[in-house]
Amino acid sequence: MPRRLAPLQILGLACFVLLLAVPYALPLLGAKFWVNIVAEIMIWSLFAASVNLLFGYTGLLSFGQALYFGFGAYGVALGVDILGLSFWPAVLFGVFVAGACAAITGIFAARLTWHYFAIITVVFSLIFFFVAVGWKSVTGGDDGRPFTVPPVLKVGGVEFTLLDPTFQYYFIMTVVGACFYLMHVILKSPLGYTFIAVRENASRLGLIGYSPYLIRYISFVIAGIFAGVAGVLFALFARYVSAQYLFWTVSGEGVIWALIGGSGTLFGPVLGATFLIVVREELSIYWEHYLFAVGVIVILFVAFAPGGLMGLLTRALDWLAKKPAERTAPEIAKPAPRAKGPGGGP
Model pTM? Predict the structure, then answer.
């Protein structure tokens, strides 16, 4: 018999179909502006997922993911502008630069945990932020550096370019979707389970022959690469890079999106980024101090819904999947099992 899809899987497929229809459906509804907002949400969702890979799965709270996001963005921009690279070599160069930066900084950061880890990631982010601000001739500093995006692909006389909004949308969707699939494969592999193990009890992991430092380091580098891909996509999307994208507050937004969406879940950061960006866009039209409302929402979620939106959604779908009689029936607590002696008896 074919396996039935779980309610969460059905909802995921429905969301995927809606995402496919966005470039055509939203203009018909008079909301063409939102096509770019949805594309931006996908990019920031990938960035939040890189934060979640460290915090939700490996137990490391990083406020330095903006560093790798910024390096990816600057890598692709400078690759095109200064090195004269075409599209795909420039993209790969941006990802490589972000990954190399994560590999170097991770040597020091992965030795630490708890607030020490958070502090050192902020320090690295600030160091490179001030370097980028001061090195205006290359980075553009606070003013930023615009650049021209070369064509993605040429087939005969047909040229595919990100100047076409529809092609740009599907390009971003394809890359982000591929990254989330790759992240899913990693997390379901033995390596992914060691990430969770080092989060739960690093000492026990060391006792069975694994190096907690090495596991943290690998997670750190992988998360940095995903953040770098997000930075590359954002630079291509905006046609612009700035030192501000290296600042630690950008990492703070990623942390908030992961927490609100549900840390330790694959698509929780997607929900968190989507929810807060939509709230920001809508509230900013009517209220100048919209960030105050966003702050209240974050506090309420942290205090009353620590599982985030994904936790609330999962519970709601589980409740809907029950029969009407099961929804109203009180849950009966099961008795605790009796302890057994060495021989198996009481």
Answer: 0.89
